[in-house]
């Protein structure tokens, strides 16, 4: 692309024309390099034997270009094979640190985020996950919880994140799970007073009160999911007492999203006509707009994204589904994150090792012409975060 800028006059025009004919996404990416960088996108590559994090500059038009030095060494070991979970990569609340699961070595890597977007492991990283095969991380202020899903060490374990980025285990925080539980997601509400965990293996939902870093389960916890295969989940950003959970395993065209009210003792109560149909297959990942008005769920088997409007009481109204551009078979769209402005949605594509990008207008999605963006070779990605300006 530097060569094209050095070619004068008509040759430059012809070069860009040919680029557009042969590889449209690269042409748009070249154009995006002239845009101001407004933030970054990071993906857990889940590589073995050494895990890495892919980093991108994020431009004002939503396009991505690889960060210099990407991929960045995380320090632990990825699984080297595709894993499905939500929240395998998280930013600290102050944006200074990136936390990544290292599923192959039972560790959590913590990396310092520099002003230019580059990443550097903190001293002492990676840290033990407190169990086996960590797959999901929840962060609220300095409190961190990890979901471990491996045999003999399946649990939720708590840590304190220090100002230096080091993780310190919290005594008495580990909540053990049966090997059959297979947790795929752990998450805090916006106030850090409730924590939910999703057991895909047994179709159950854990719900806890959080007090001084420790967990107290609701009297009825865990509760049965409303249909088979609870998976992705998110608390409503504007209402910490509403929880939404996708249900992935009900069969072809039978995916749903459940909505729950969360009480003061963390009891979950179904909202309205929950679960709400999405008429797609395997809704697995959930993301909610920052204003709390719209919910998006990624339908992995259908290769679509369903959009819902959220009523004040938490009831959902299906708006429709948007197909993801599929350049070949085996797309496998996974985790999804909105940028801080809510104008762009980014999705990890595990089958192709790419990131798909969509512009967002309320509940409507339009895939960018330059999408998808390639991840480094060897990536078997899961987990994505987006930082930057609002």
What's a quick, concise take on this entry?
The protein is mainly β and 390 residues long. It has helices at 2-6, 9-22, 24-32; strands at 37-44, 52-59, 64-66, 72-73, 89-91, 97-102, 107-113, 119-121, 127-128, 134-140, 143-148, 155-161, 167-169, 175-176, 183-188, 194-199, 204-211, 214-217, 223-224, 230-236, 239-247, 256-262, 268-270, 276-277, 283-288, 294-299, 304-310, 316-323, 333-338, 344-349, 354-361, 364-367, 373-374, 384-388.
Spell out the CATH superfamily of the largest domain. YVTN repeat-like/Quinoprotein amine dehydrogenase
Q: What's the structural domain tally?
A: 2
Tally of DSSP β-strands: 34
What's the end-to-end separation, in Å? 29 Å
Which secondary-structure class do the elements indicate? mainly beta
Please identify the top-level CATH class of the largest domain: Mainly Beta
Averaging pLDDT over every residue, what do you get? 90
Strand-residue fraction? over 45%
C-alpha Rg, in Å? 20 Å
Q: Give the biggest beta sheet.
A: 5 strands, antiparallel
User: What name does the CATH topology of the largest domain carry?
Assistant: Methylamine Dehydrogenase, Chain H
Helical proportion, percent range: under 10%
CATH architecture of the largest domain: 7 Propeller
Query: What is the global morphology?
Result: globular
User: How many alpha or pi helices?
Assistant: 3
Uncertain segments: 1-34
């Amino acid at each position: 692309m530097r060569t094209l800028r050095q070619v004068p006059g008509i040759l430059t025009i012809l070069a860009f024309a040919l680029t557009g004919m042969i590889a449209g996404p690269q042409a748009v990416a070249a154009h995006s390099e002239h845009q101001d960088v407004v933030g970054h996108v990071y993906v857990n590559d889940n590589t073995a034997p050494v895990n890495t994090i892919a980093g991108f500059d994020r431009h004002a038009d939503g396009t991505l270009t690889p960060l210099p030095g990407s991929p960045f060494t995380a320090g632990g070991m990825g699984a080297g094979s595709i894993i499905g979970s939500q929240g395998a990569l998280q930013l600290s609340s102050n944006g200074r640190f990136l936390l990544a699961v290292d599923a192959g070595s039972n560790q959590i890597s913590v990396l310092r985020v520099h002003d230019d977007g580059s990443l550097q492991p903190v001293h002492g990283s990676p840290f033990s996950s407190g169990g086996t095969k960590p797959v999901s991380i929840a962060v609220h202020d300095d409190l961190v919880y990890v979901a471990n899903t491996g045999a003999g060490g399946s649990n939720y374990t708590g840590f304190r994140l220090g100002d230096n980025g080091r993780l310190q285990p919290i005594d008495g925080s580990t909540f053990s799970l049966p090997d059959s539980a297979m947790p795929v997601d752990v998450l805090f509400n916006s106030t850090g007073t409730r924590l939910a965990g999703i057991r895909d293996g047994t179709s159950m939902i854990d719900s806890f009160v959080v007090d001084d870093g420790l967990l107290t389960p609701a009297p009825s916890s865990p509760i049965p999911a409303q249909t088979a295969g609870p998976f992705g989940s998110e608390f409503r950003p504007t209402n910490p007492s509403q929880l939404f959970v996708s249900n992935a395993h009900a069969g072809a065209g039978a995916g749903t999203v459940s909505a729950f009210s969360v009480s003061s003792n963390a009891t979950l109560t179904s909202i309205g006509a929950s679960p709400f149909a999405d008429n797609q297959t395997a809704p697995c990942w959930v993301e909610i707009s920052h204003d709390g008005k719209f919910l998006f769920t990624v339908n992995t088997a259908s290769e679509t994204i369903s959009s819902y409007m959220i009523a004040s009481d938490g009831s959902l109204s299906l708006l429709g589904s948007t197909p993801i551009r599929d350049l070949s078979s085996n797309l496998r769209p996974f985790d999804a994150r909105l940028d801080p402005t809510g104008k762009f949605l980014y999705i990890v594509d595990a089958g192709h090792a790419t990131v798909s990008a969509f512009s967002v207008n309320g509940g409507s999605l339009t895939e960018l012409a330059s999408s998808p963006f390639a991840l480094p070779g060897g990536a078997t990605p899961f987990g994505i975060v987006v930082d930057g300006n609002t």
